[in-house]
């Protein structure tokens, strides 16, 4: 099973960035934990991070036909990017939306995700563990 993981803007600064919201782990720590879990459950993961909306769109497009699932934290683009939403509609694989923080417990402008209704499901508020939960979600969906 081959899964693509996309980290959106500013997630490359995890560990330094607003630890009260996002914790102390770095993006590399999260990727390592996911890769380790992947080895255990037979999932191969590719990781991509960008601060640029168009590069995220390009990467989603290039995933077409190549992956069994997509785990994406679009970060701030969650709340604004119709381009990312439209790109996700191209894919016919399970897409799981992940947020480290619980976006519904934060500022009102974070309560709306423009991709929520085009993904299989959302994992929000469980910190880095949310990415591991998302892996379980993809795994179960593909086995059904
Ligand atoms: C985030 C929540 C977003 O509102 C924010 O812009 C982020 C990170 C999260 O993982 O909790 O950058 O997606």
Relevant terms:
single chain, 144 residues, alpha/beta, Rossmann fold, five-stranded parallel beta sheet, 5 strands, 35% helix, globular, binds 1,3,4-trihydroxy-5-OXO-cyclohexanecarboxylic acid
Report on the structure:
With 144 residues, the chain is an alpha/beta fold. Helix content is 35%, strand content 18%. The longest helix has 15 residues, at 27-41. It has five helices and five strands; from the N terminus they run βααβαβαββα. Helix 2 packs parallel to helix 5 and helix 3 packs parallel to helix 4 (82-88). Strand 3 (69-73), helix 4 and strand 4 (95-99) form a beta-alpha-beta unit. It has a single domain, classed as Rossmann fold, CATH 3.40.50.9100. The mean pLDDT is 97. It has a five-stranded parallel sheet with strand order 2-1-3-4-5, with helices on one face.
Q: Identify low-pLDDT runs.
A: none
Q: Which structural class should the secondary elements be placed in?
A: alpha/beta
How is the largest sheet built, in terms of strand order?
Answer: 2-1-3-4-5
The count of helical stretches stands at 5
Number of domains: 1
The CATH topology is Rossmann fold
Number of strands: 5
Secondary structure: helix percent: 25-40%
Main β sheet profile: 5 strands, parallel
In the CATH hierarchy, what is the class? Answer: Alpha Beta
Bound molecules: 1,3,4-trihydroxy-5-OXO-cyclohexanecarboxylic acid
Within CATH, the superfamily carries the name Dehydroquinase, class II
What Rg is obtained from the alpha carbons, in whole angstroms?
14 Å
Order of helices and strands: EHHEHEHEEH
């Amino acid at each position: 099973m081959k899964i693509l993981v996309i980290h959106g803007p500013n997630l490359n600064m995890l560990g330094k960035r607003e630890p009260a919201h996002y914790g102390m782990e770095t993006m590399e720590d999260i990727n390592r934990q996911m890769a380790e879990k992947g080895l255990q459950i037979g999932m191969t993961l590719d990781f991509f991070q960008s601060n640029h909306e168009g590069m995220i769109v390009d990467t989603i497009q290039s995933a077409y036909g190549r992956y069994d699932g997509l785990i994406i934290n679009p970060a701030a683009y969650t709340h604004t990017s119709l381009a990312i939403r439209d790109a996700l509609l191209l894919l016919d694989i399970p897409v799981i939306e992940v947020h480290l923080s619980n976006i519904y417990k934060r500022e009102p402008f974070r309560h709306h995700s423009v991709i929520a209704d085009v993904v299989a499901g959302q994992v929000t508020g469980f910190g880095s563990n949310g990415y591991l939960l998302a892996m379980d979600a993809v795994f179960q969906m593909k086995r059904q």
